[in-house]
Q: What sequence folds into this?
């Protein structure tokens, strides 16, 4: 028995070491490959440069950062309220019978490969933006034009992709709010809407918030779907109907044909992504801690 | 029971039946609840005290499958009438639960929640309500310096008094209490008991308790429940010294099985 337990312990230890070492190796590798060009080109120039022309060895990734942020922010603007509303509906308003099929459908969404989302966007969303959304925008600004490949297309698809994360985690958080809070609120003469808005959602806010952070991580990291529908033009966008390139999309697209310096520059993009995600995690933890304090 | 025509009835309950699905939890309950009195509900576990209490502010509406028959009149209006304003009922008939259930908000926010829901926005008035109600439950001195701290940081007894204050903040006429002291130590319990006497000057109180001494100490009238029926309801002193029903006597004296 003793030996058996020892062996298990060792096995777990080894798994932990393998995981940590893998992460460390990947980190070291990315930094080792990307760092030289970052230093040589200048970190500031690299990050703030607005021109990405790798063939002429000009590596300014601002357009890519803007592209990633615009698509992600758009996805959050569309996806977060929708997702939270959906979670509230499923946990507080719908009967168990109605909620069942909805939940199954949302879980199904999570299982669809991202390239399929991208393909759907390519076939349905991109033409729809060109044919139906553009005329609406042109009423306000006649000069506007678009091929359909755009921030908007990427944001909408990403919003759908992050829905399962937001809905299921938020729903768990809301369902976990003790019944006593609902009763206390209703017994004071609050109606259902007030109870949901002022007691239940606030009581579940740290769970909801962490679902949003996870969703944001997914949105920033998503490559394939976005690659297919944002147009991949590394330029500063003027409107949400303009095409953009994202950090991840650029790495995926250009790695296959990049020359040595270009390749290094792509790794340097990896470093930037790495740091953005790290900062996000730190921010999330800080905010969560602060929320936990009042909770 | 003595006829007390001269006392104001707050609730007038006639022939109340309540079913959870097919299970009948309350049977043919007739009872009057008088204004500015403390009415204690006693009886063994599972006899329907909480169920009965929750019919008075229609909290049983939240439980699926509940059917209610009979008449509950509050200030002479049938509260189970189709268009009866439940929100208004719950504003007038507040409730304190067995387990203290402050919201995960600050002490201040807990108290102003009710008034805000009912439309009070004026900061000065809200501040005033907080001070008044916390003083009413004798909690003001203990918490006045940490109104903006989480209510969950309070002790169990303090939390329960906060819940009473939160209930008072909407200026109810009746307060329903379901074993409000069962989770508290003797010191916190006696604080709340002391409070009840004061509150009865302004409010009508209905309190469920398993503690016979407590019922004897604090209440004016007592109703004895047994398996969904009210066996006896009377003036507390009368019932405790001279119960009419032998089962009541057995229960009060602790001889009950
Ligand atoms: N939500 C419910 N669904 C079905 N049956 C219920 C429900 N709530 C209570 N009951 C049943 O109704 C009866 C009365 O319950 P109630 O909670 O009113 O008793 P009580 O007198 O308050 O008991 P206690 O002193 O233990 O709190 C019990 O038999 C109980 O099992
Ligand atoms: Mg009970």
A:
């Amino acid at each position: 028995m003793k030996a058996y337990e020892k062996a298990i312990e060792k096995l777990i230890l080894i798994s932990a070491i393998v995981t940590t070492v893998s992460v460390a190796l990947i980190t070291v590798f990315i930094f080792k490959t990307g760092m030289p060009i970052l230093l040589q080109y200048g970190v500031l120039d690299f990050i703030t440069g607005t021109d990405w022309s790798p063939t002429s060895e000009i590596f300014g990734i601002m357009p890519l950062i803007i592209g990633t942020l615009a698509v992600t922010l758009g996805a959050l603007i569309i996806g977060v309220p929708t997702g939270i509303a959906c979670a509230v509906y499923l946990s507080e308003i719908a009967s168990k019978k109605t909620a069942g099929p909805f939940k199954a459908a949302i879980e199904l969404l999570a299982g669809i490969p991202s390239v399929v989302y991208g393909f759907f966007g390519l076939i349905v969303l991109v033409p729809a933006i060109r044919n139906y959304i553009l005329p609406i925008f042109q009423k306000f600004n006649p000069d506007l034009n678009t091929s359909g490949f755009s921030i908007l297309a990427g944001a909408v698809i990403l919003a759908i992709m992050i829905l399962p994360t937001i809905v299921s985690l938020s729903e768990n958080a809301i369902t976990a709010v003790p019944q006593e809070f609902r009763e206390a609120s209703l017994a004071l003469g609050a109606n259902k809407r007030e109870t949901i808005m002022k007691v239940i959602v606030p009581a579940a806010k740290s769970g909801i918030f962490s679902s949003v952070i996870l969703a944001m991580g997914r949105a920033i990291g998503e490559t394939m779907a976005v690659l297919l529908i944002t147009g991949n033009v590394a330029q500063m966008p003027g409107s949400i109907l303009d095409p953009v390139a994202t950090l991840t999309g650029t790495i995926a697209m250009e790695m296959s044909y990049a020359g040595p310096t270009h390749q290094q520059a792509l790794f340097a993009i990896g470093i930037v992504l790495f740091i953005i995600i790290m900062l996000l995690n730190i921010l999330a933890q800080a905010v969560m801690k602060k929320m936990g304090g009042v909770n | 029971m003595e006829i007390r025509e001269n006392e104001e009835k707050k609730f007038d309950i006639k022939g109340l039946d309540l079913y959870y699905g097919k299970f009948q939890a309350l049977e043919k309950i007739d009872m009057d609840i008088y204004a500015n009195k403390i009415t204690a509900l006693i009886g063994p576990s599972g006899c329907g005290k909480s169920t009965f209490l929750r019919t008075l502010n229609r909290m049983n509406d939240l439980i699926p499958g509940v059917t209610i028959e009979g008449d509950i009149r509050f200030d002479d209006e049938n509260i189970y009438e189709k268009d009866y304003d439940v929100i208004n009922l719950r504003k007038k008939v507040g409730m304190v639960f067995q387990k203290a259930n402050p919201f995960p908000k600050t002490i201040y926010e807990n108290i102003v929640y009710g008034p805000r829901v009912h439309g009070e926005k004026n900061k000065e008035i809200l501040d005033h309500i907080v001070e008044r109600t916390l003083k009413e439950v004798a909690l003001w001195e203990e918490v006045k310096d940490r109104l903006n701290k989480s209510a969950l940081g309070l002790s169990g007894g303090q939390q329960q008094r906060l819940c009473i204050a939160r209930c008072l903040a909407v200026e109810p006429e009746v307060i329903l209490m379901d074993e409000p002291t069962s989770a508290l130590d003797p010191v916190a319990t006696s604080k709340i008991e002391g409070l009840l006497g004061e509150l009865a000057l302004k409010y009508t109180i209905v309190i469920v308790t398993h503690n016979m001494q407590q019922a004897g100490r604090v209440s004016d009238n007592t109703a004895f429940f047994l398996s969904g029926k009210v066996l006896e309801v009377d003036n507390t002193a009368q019932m405790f010294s001279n119960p009419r029903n032998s089962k009541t006597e057995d229960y009060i004296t602790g001889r009950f099985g």
